[in-house]
Give the backbone structure.
Amino acid sequence: QVQLEESGGGLVQAGGSLSLACKASGRTASRYSIGWFRQAPGSGREFVAVTRWSDGNAAYGDSVKGRFTISKDNSKATVYLQMNSLKPEDTAVYYCAATLQRGTTISRFYEYWGQGTQVTVSA
C-alpha cells in the first residue's frame, strides 16, 4: 500500500508560479515512480510529469515542457512539481500517483492516487 498526499495548490495570475508537493508513505513507496496528472472540468485526465525514485529520470507532457519541473527529495519521500509561466489553460485539479511501471505516462498503469489539489490560473 502507498499513500499519497498533495499540497500546494491555489490561485495565481497568469505568468505566475506555484509549487506542488506530493508526500508518499507506505512500506513499499520507494519502489514506485511518482507522476503528476491533471484534470480540468469536462476533460479527461492529462499526463503532466513523472519521475523515478531510483535515478530521478523525468518525462513531461508536451503542454508543460519547459515550464514545469518535477523533482524529488528522497529523504522526505516527497516529489515536487514546480510550475512556472502558468497559463489559464493550466487550471485543473492536479493529482499525484504512483506506479510500478517505471516512467509510464499512461494513467491506467498508476495504482495509487492522491486526493488532488486545485490549481486555478486567472487571466
Remarks:
- The chain has no helices and eleven strands.
